[in-house]
Amino acid sequence: MTPLHAALTRLPGLAALSADALEPMPLKGVAHDHVRLRGHGLVARVPRWSQMGLDPLAALDHQATAFRRAEPSGHTPRLVALLPPGEGLPMGALLVTEILGRTPRLPSDMPAIARALAALHRLPVPADPAPLPAPADPVAALLAQVERQAAWFAGAALSPDARRLIDAELDAARAAQPAGPHPVTPVGVDTHPGNFLIDADGKAWFTDLEKLQYGHPAMDLAHASLYTSTKWDPAVDTVLTDAEVAAFHAAWVDAVPAALAEAVRPGLKPLRRLTWLRTLSWMARWSREGTALSPGMPEPLRAHMDAHAADILRAERIERVRRDWQ
């Protein structure tokens, strides 16, 4: 009996769960394994490491809270149970409802993704948001995260031109922050299209809530549509045109209150730059530490990630992407 199977059979209603019912799902991301419970409509999310640097219990508490808080949006899986860390399951696991769907096809599914994000962004911010982060100034917090992660550029194999362009973008980001006060809503953070599933009715479901927090909605809109995100998942692997990004934004605007849309508008371009820098700096780290960060990753996925990092850190690619806000 595997540790995961043993932990699952201790849950109410799963005592008779057959080991044969556990079906490992293809590894798509860097931080979790997923195991389907055939015949039960459930999936176990088994962390491989915490991208937020949290200890196992704190990481599970964060994710469990995220699933509970996002559930009223109607666009995320429902949390069923939490499996605490233990022998053979050092990071514990979450048990969530299975979403039956396919990988998004871009650009046609971008409006559905926009509506899913809008449903999340319409949710209220609780009086006590803990344990989810809720910075008083979400733009300053994002800039501070970029500043911390910028140290990873020094260890990446960047060309002089690439480093010059990145330094120029960091300087511009520091100097061009939108004036507050800023809108604050629940934000998914890791909202690249590969983290969505499209069901038979065309509805988009956001499935990876590890990084959910409270922040500026423009972060999610950026991360869902930037080149660095739409090329992240090899099953998505699409480049959106400017018109397609504009249509995505328009679908989101149509699905949120007018006051929220108006409050978000000034931050669209500045946070697009900051969100891109957040991803770029993380990928600079991956380019040097990917093997250590996610051991056991299947070679085809690792090769794709490595190639993606090399691509987005090229001076030519940096120059092209930054035209989005220039």
TrEMBL record:
Which keywords label this protein? Transferase
- Name this polypeptide is given: Aminoglycoside phosphotransferase
InterPro entries referenced in this protein's UniProt entry, alphabetically? Aminoglycoside_PTrfase (IPR002575), Kinase-like_dom_sf (IPR011009)
- Has UniProt tagged this entry with the keyword Repeat? no
Segments forming domain Aminoglycoside phosphotransferase: 60-243
The record's Pfam families line, in alphabetical order, gives: APH
Q: Which SUPFAM superfamilies does the UniProt entry name for this protein? A: Protein kinase-like (PK-like)
State the species of origin: Azospirillum doebereinerae
Q: Does the keyword Transferase apply?
A: yes
Q: Which GO terms describe its molecular function?
A: transferase activity
